[in-house]
Sequence to fold (77 residues):
Amino acid sequence: MIKRDCAECGKSFTAHMSHAKYCSDQCRWRAHKRETYAERKKNGLCPQCGGKMADEQSSYCRKCQTYFRRRYYKNAE
Fold:
């Protein structure tokens, strides 16, 4: 067993396999999600769903913007 630091959160953990980089599945999926979002943004896609962006100034596609408004600003529309 090898003592390592988690690539995502920095906590020390005991690795049971030599290629282990994360202390838990939660840290592994968090890192995967961050990488996916970054790749989508780099390619000019919506970071949330991977769809086509509404315009260059918005952060998300029209579908995700509509969902966000309905979900979190129920009285806005």
Summary: Helices lie at 25-42, 62-72. DSSP finds two helices and two strands in the chain.
